[in-house]
Amino acid sequence: MNRPLQGELGDALGAVLGDMQQAITQLMQVLENERTALNAGNSDALGEAGAGKQKLMLQLEQLDAERQQLSREAPAAATRLDATWAQVLQGLRRCQQLNQSNGRAVNQRLGQVRQALSILTGHAGETGLYGPTGGLRGSLRSQVLAQA
């Protein structure tokens, strides 16, 4: 392959990596916004964050496909840009940590809601148990929580 074409492929690869870094920065912000929405119990903001995460993940997948193609076509440029790629990977690891932290917060809240519901419905300690017929086992009784 001729030198000018290799240079153009290298430039394109550098641009793709730059686009990936921008998308990662945006994803970090969306994950921070998601955490804020979780802490505030703001369902509208959670929905926006979820949509934003999905959009950015699709964008990152597309950019990564381009990066892989360009790296195969211009291996010398890919080697020159190894430091930039390492920064991209570091950013992705940070996004993963933020997302896992948010997931733990969601699971904790979900557990609290399930516990409250089981108390209110009189099925405390019976969630997730199945009887011999395969149906959810538990009594259908309600309990008086307070009397006037």
TrEMBL record:
Pfam families reported in the protein's UniProt record: FlgN
Keywords: Bacterial flagellum biogenesis, Coiled coil
SUPFAM superfamilies with a match to the protein in the record: FlgN-like
Keyword DNA-binding part of the UniProt annotation: no
Domain of life: Bacteria
Presence of keyword Ligase: no
Stretches of the chain forming a coiled coil according to its record: 53-80
Stored InterPro entries: FlgN-like (IPR007809), FlgN-like_sf (IPR036679)
Family listed: Belongs to the FlgN family.
Function statement: Required for the efficient initiation of filament assembly.
Entry protein name: Flagellar biosynthesis protein FlgN
Classification lineage: Bacteria, Pseudomonadati, Pseudomonadota, Gammaproteobacteria, Lysobacterales
